[in-house]
Amino acid sequence: MTNTKINFSLLLGLLSIFFIIKPTQAAYVYVDANGVNSSEDGSVEYPFHTISRALGQGEQILVKSGNYNEEITLPENATLLGEDKNTVIIDREGQEGTAVTMGKNSAIENVTVRGGNYSIVAPAFKKSTIRDCVVEKSKRIGVWIKKKQQSPGKQC
């Protein structure tokens, strides 16, 4: 009788795991602004044409060389990894707003971020990483480590 109760409890515990664990996202999502396929699913064969389309589809967003004229908001725990910092360009030159807004525990690596009022805004104390990037031509602040409810001070 005791073994039956233990086996039933074990089975119940295992079944509950399936309901608690949410479905996993794809490990890698691919982006190529110069992709020629009209179909896009984020795979190597059919990459998304914009970074925005790839957001939320996986934790690792691998970006091929190209100009990406879009505002990016990286979700929590996401990594945006460019093929080459000299040829992967998030370009908001001459435009308002923020080029890249980073989420908690997010990372951006090996890209150029150009323009916008703020090129990159990262949350303070949230372990975001900016590695091997070029930040240029910001209207106000290149990289802003923003505290909650903080607004930029006077510019020198």
Polypeptide structure, described:
Helices cover 15% and strands 35% of the residues. With 156 residues, the protein is α/β, with parallel strands linked by helices. It has one domain (24-146): Pectate Lyase C-like. It has a 5-stranded parallel sheet, with no helix packed on it. Strands 3-6-9-12 form a 4-stranded parallel sheet, with no helix packed on it. The chain has a 4-stranded parallel sheet with strand order 4-7-10-13, with no helix packed on it. The N and C termini lie far apart (78 Å). 26% of the residues are buried.
Q: Strand order, main sheet: write it out.
A: 1-2-5-8-11
Count structural domains.
1
> What is the CATH level 1 assignment?
Mainly Beta
Number of strands: 13
> Quick check: average pLDDT?
85
Radius of gyration: 20 Å
Q: What is the H/E string?
A: HEHEEEEEEEEEEEE
CATH topology: Pectate Lyase C-like
* CATH architecture name: 3 Solenoid
Q: Please identify the oligomeric state.
A: single chain
Number of helices: 2
The biggest sheet amounts to: 5 strands, parallel
* Amino- and carboxy-terminal Cα gap: 78 Å
Helix-residue proportion: 10-25%
Could you say which structural class the secondary elements and strand pairing correspond to? alpha/beta
What amount of the residues lies in strands?
A: 35-45%
CATH superfamily: Single-stranded right-handed beta-helix, Pectin lyase-like
Low-confidence stretches: 17-24
Which shape, going by the Cα principal axes? globular
